[in-house]
Amino acid sequence: MKKDWTEFQKKYRLENSLYNFVIKPGVFESSVAVFFIVGIPSIFIIGEKFSTILSFVFSILTYFVLKNEEKKFNKELDKYLEDD
Fold it and tell me: What is the pLDDT of residues 31-42, one digit of tens each?
């Protein structure tokens, strides 16, 4: 009997809320959103040059964290589907 991976995905999304950023907007889109969310307010607070660097760093960190979450999900899904 084949297992339904959508049920696993629902359960995984409820247990790991960070994975929702991978599914809904995507890894790259979330990184771009963090770039603007951090960058725009920090321009007014600390200045233009440093805020660009700061938002770029947070954007890169977001990309790597979400890429790691995607890898963890794929590994768990493979393990779930293997247990047939």
Answer: 999 999 998 888
CA angle 47, 50, 51 (to 5 degrees): 70
Two structure tokens written together for 10: 């629902």
Residue 3 three-state SS: coil
CA torsion sign, 51 to 60 to 26 to 83?
negative
Residue 38, C-beta contacts closer than 8 angstroms, at least 6 positions apart: 51, 54, 55, 58, 59
Statement: the pTM of the whole predicted model exceeds 0.85 = no
Alpha-carbon dihedral angle through residues 18, 20, 25, 30, given to the nearest 10 degrees:
0
Specify whether the CB–CB gap between 4 and 82 falls below 8 A: no
